[in-house]
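Follow-up to my earlier ticket, as requested here are the two runs.
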Amino acid sequence: MKRIGLVILLPLLMSGCVQTTTYSGTDTRVAEREYVPSAAARERVSLGLAYLNRGDNEQAKYNLERALEQSPDLDEALLAMAHYYDVVKDEARAEQFYKRAVSVHPNSADAANNYGVFLCRQQRYKDADKWMNRAVDIPGYIRMSQTYENLGMCARQAGWDDKARLYYERALNYDPRRAATLLEVAELSFVAQQWDETRRYLERYHQGGNESPASLLLGAELEYSVQNTDAARRYGVLLLAKYPGSEQAKTYRMKYY
């Protein structure tokens, strides 16, 4: 099962607000750091996520807990803690923090998207579809192509191929060069035996400078399906030469050697 993209807020390190103070007996203004809980919490979130990415889960949790102590309702902190529990496979606590995030921040499209992705990974497809659609309906959301791609992948996992195709097309309306979506549509077209559509989307994928074991195997299978043996073998040669240890290379050897 494919893991669909999870949009996590990764805040930049922020310094606290700075105020100017005039000291008695001098006209010199001296800048001093003022403690602002939300800014301090964002620094902790950034640090916690950095530790999490390095696999230091203890330090990740410590910093994320400190962030929530400093700013209990900060959306970045709630989502980061939910992500932490998702990573360590504590689904119950992860869902608690996702629910809290969407409750405290009902207009946060990132919170709605992330909760939807989490639900899809739990195979709760109808709820996942609802939450990710809520994300794209929130005004001002800028990650539209990402969330529509998520919706498409989740629909495909659920076996809703027609719905998946619709979501993928919407993703490409927002970002025509989105590589993962182009390959997904090519695969759906191949399953539906739409050979021309498969070739069109696969060419768009490769013309964007993308190449993967999956795309090369799909190209070979497409060309074998239309009896274009020479083109199929060219794809196969590339696959075996560049990605010899991949699962797709093993599949190619089993089917066509």
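Run two:
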Amino acid sequence: MTTDPSPDWYTHFFTELPNEFWRRLTPEAATAAEVGFVERHLGLAPGSRVLDVPCGSGRHSMALAARGYRVSGVDISAEAVDHARRAAAEAGLTVDLTVADMRDLPRDGEFDAVVCLGNSFGYLDPTSTRQFARSLAGAVRPGGGLVIDCGTAAESVLPSFDPSPRTLDAGGITVTATNSYDAEGSRLITRYHFADGTRELEVAAVHHVYTSAHLGEVLTEAGFTDITRYAGTDDQPYALGERRLLLTARRGTS
């Protein structure tokens, strides 16, 4: 019998082998396009304070810092944050990096913008997702901007759902991923097998699948306004069957 992943799976999933796979998989051009999207839609002024959460291994944090922004990153993976600190130091960049749960954010409105990139918004159950949205709103100043990246919105996942195993290779690390869908809990469950020739690891991830409308409601309840949906960094509008949803918003001023 296959064991159901724990609700807090993300607290122990992101260890060295999975993190290194994603570091090798993502091209620099993709990071540049995502940071360009953030700059374009949030209208960041020089020296703006930006919070990257969860920041993972710091690819967006460092790209933003390299463009002159004052960046803080938060992630629950100590391995990822340690890697980001080393990479930032080697690049001569100043980034404030903290190991913490993404719901545990400063709530003094000190940031001009908050970004949640890399498809992590669906990690949490509905109650915790609302808590996370409130934390994002508390971290950003009134009128400040928000960008959320979601690859598991219902309109993206369900039209083309495929339970067949998929295999990817990134710099000598191979991963086989197999999806299943929990219709009762509206959860996408992905079981991974990582291997690099000397190490193997089997782990599972869970993404809670929310409709585009529900995500908008969660952000509105948290105090965000001007919510806009895009299908990617090329600014095309989001529609049924698009593989990715990027949401932009502003924290309300009232």
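The only thing I checked on run two: The helical segments are 10-13, 16-25, 28-42, 59-66, 78-91, 126-139, 154-157, 212-222. Let me know what else you need.
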